[in-house]
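## retry 2 of 3
previous attempt timed out at serialization; input unchanged, resubmitting
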Amino acid sequence: MNRKVLMCGNEAMSEAAVRAGCRFYFGYPITPQNEVPAYMAMRMPQVGGTFIQAESEIAAINMVFGAAAVGARAMTSSSSPGISLKQEGISYLCGCELPAVIANVVRGGPGLGNIGPSQSDYFQATRGGGHGDYRTMALAPSSVQELADFTFLAFGLAEKYRNPVLILSDGILGQMMEPVVLPDPIETNLPRKDWVLTGAKNRPPRVIKSLYLDVTVLEKQNFKLREKYRRMEREDIRFEEISMDDAEVVLVAYGSVARICRSAVRQLREAGHRVGLFRPITVWPFPYEALARFADKARFFLALEMSMGQMVEDVKLAVAGRTPVRFYGRTGGCVITVEEVVRQIEMLKEKTQ
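## retry succeeded, writing output
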């Protein structure tokens, strides 16, 4: 049985990637994710892998593209402004159906903002920040353990769908230290891929591209991609429900805010309030149907985010007007506290008496 080790989130995520078979890491320094390239610079040579500090975030994502095209498990990471620069490359990865893992340790914005934790990249992660009709699966951990587990999982999901998978972390999770049980290293013999570019000496040539000048051919490709995204929605939606059986008030939160809300639920329950927490784990695909089950049972929903309000739009889509949806957020690197959550619930319950 693996023993627990004390690690910060960025390092746990990095070690999990190594154990998942990642052998190519390309990145560029930006706070608060600098522990990732620092750790990968140490670990990649130890496992026969390759670490490159690229000249820019744009270069890094295109290096990932090249490694993915020849069948390697490849990863990059950055923080908000750097992820923005990678968006064109992410669109190309999706258009060419190449698997990759991309980690965003979100910081305050817009613009340069600051290095405080934030969740204001939700739209970018769930709507696709680049051009064209594409989707990236986005996993939102809420602990150092989940950072490790979800990163390990992300490599398998990326290859299952031949699509990039995003790890949506933040400055709290990346920097905090917690005990973590690291996953066992994956077998070295990964499944064969019949689409990779490895030279055509003994086989017919293969082509990986996203350029389709014939409009009908491009439309057909987009329909094909849409079917893949619908398969993600059928097979790999993840969420967690906490004290939801009799909840008359539903908190909806993801990532580091969800762990704060978990404490608030315990405190509110002790005070006699029937409050539950619904936590999306895949923020895309969003668990609309699972959340909608509570629309006719709850008095109201409260979406909580470290942003000006982004996930709240998905909550409203799930509830479809059947129950009021309220929002509470902090932004600019400010963190929601347990006391603020409790106060919001008490105030809202008084207003809806």
